[in-house]
Amino acid sequence: MQDLLHAIGFIITFGVFFVGIIIAEAYYWHRKGRTDIYDFKETVASITTGAMYKIADGILIAVVITGLYDFVYQYGLQYVPDDGIWSILLIFFAVDFVFYWYHRFMHNIRWLWTGHVTHHSSTRMNFSTALRQNFLYDLNFGWLIWWLPIALIGFDKNWAIIAIELNLAYQFFIHTEMVNKLGWWEKFFNTPSHHRVHHGSNPEQIDTNFGGVLIIWDKIFGTFVDEKDAGVIKYGLTTRQPTTLNPIRLCMDEFICMIKDLIRHKDLKILWKGPNYVEQTYGREEETSKTVETGKFQNS
């Protein structure tokens, strides 16, 4: 119960904070005459999907993850964080490194993409896009990829929760067009410039810049593209772009599309192949693309 109360408190506190920043950014662009940056209905839809996600996430952490973490912890390295600043740096790097791969898997495994697609379906880049998330994250077990390695290293459960939530909080601030280049910070950290490329749907932008806080993982593993080399950035999906702002459909349509593909083609590889596997292998039947328009022909 205590864990659940902490989760609820976190959701309310950061929710109010983030919505306040969204309002301030919308006002800034309104004063600049840029009415294309924000759309009220889309912003409401994004905030609603974000609220559904964080409520589900808070319940999952309090009811499932904390217990599972304690169970896995006893079989891990049981690292004792007695090295001060080095312990903090270790969990910071560990959490961000694992997130890089989790994020990359979300773009290349359709089962995971059905949750992440919601975040990429916005055709605008602003702070409300950061909140455009999907409660399926908490139901598809993808979170195991992020949480279990941290538990096996042996970090304290509370340390892990704080490190993961701070990692996600940082990522909120890279969803904006207000900020251009940030000098030397760009060399090591993920920035609005780098993340705008990640959200692009043109060929040069697809499957790039997966980092959470740090951009060094992309540079090491060959997925980094600088904004100046990315061409004109077009936000949104390359196909099956949503035509609805219904928050439930924004979260569920691509999952339903995947299930229909499974039934139609009787091919279990659809679950773990990329989001464009069906198009490449079988083609896309008009009926599916007409009724469920929320996937992505290629990952972005």
Topology, element by element:
Elements: H1 2-31, H2 40-73, H3 85-108, H4 110-120, H5 127-130, H6 143-153, H7 157-172, H8 185-188, H9 192-198, H10 216-221, H11 247-265, H12 269-272, H13 277-281, H14 286-291
Helix pairs in contact: 1-2, 2-6, 2-11, 3-4, 3-6, 3-7, 4-11
What is the strand tally? 0
Output the helix-strand order: HHHHHHHHHHHHHH
Helix fraction by DSSP (H/I, runs of at least 4): 55-70%
Largest sheet: none
Number of H/I helices: 14
User: Radius of gyration from the CA trace?
Assistant: 19 Å
Low-confidence residue ranges: 286-300
When the domains are counted, the total is 1
Q: Give the distance, in angstroms, between the N- and C-terminal Cα atoms.
A: 39 Å
Structural class: mainly alpha
Q: Per DSSP, what share of the residues sits in E-state strands of 2 or more residues?
A: under 5%
Rounded mean pLDDT is: 90
Shape: globular
Oligomer: single chain
Question: How would you characterize the overall build of this protein?
Answer:
With 300 residues, the chain is mainly alpha-helical. It has one domain. It has 14 helices and no strands. α2 packs parallel to α6.
Brief write-up:
With 300 residues, the chain is an all-alpha fold. It is built from 14 helices and no strands.
Write a concise keyword list for the protein shown above.
single chain, 60% helix, 14 helices, disordered C terminus, mainly alpha, globular, 300 residues
